[in-house]
Design a protein that fits this description.
- 56% of the residues lie in helices and 0% in strands.
- It is built from 6 helices and no strands.
- The longest helix is centred in the N-terminal third of the chain and has 18 residues.
- The chain starts with a helix and ends with a helix.
- The protein binds zinc ion.
- The site of zinc ion has 7 residues, from α2 and α5.
Length: 96
């Protein structure tokens, strides 16, 4: 039994190393001034949406507060105009 416990702890440590907590993320839109957030650019916006259609949080995308707000607005507009699916069921039908 004590061996198993040790193994679990070891695995957790390995996971932390794999995901690299020390890496810095920077805002893609701040770095590239020519890259613009456009609600008509569905491909760009799909990078900020999960497979299920949910918005990806800032701590994962690395966007700054200003640009995350812009992305959110753009995604919401794009959903209404059907550039981006609302939900996963729509994903299945549209073959995204
Ligand atoms: Zn930014």
């Amino acid at each position: 039994m004590p061996k198993k416990k040790f193994d679990k702890k070891f695995d957790k440590k390995n996971d932390k190393k794999k995901f690299g907590t020390g890496r810095k993320k920077s805002c893609r839109f701040c770095q590239d001034k020519e890259l613009r957030i456009d609600y008509k650019d569905g491909r760009l916006l799909l990078g900020f949406v999960t497979e299920r259609g949910r918005l990806v949080p800032r701590r994962i995308t690395g966007n700054c507060a200003f640009h995350q707000r812009e992305v959110t607005l753009a995604v919401k507009r794009a959903r209404i105009l059907a550039y981006i699916p609302f939900t996963a069921t729509q994903v299945r039908h549209a073959n995204f």
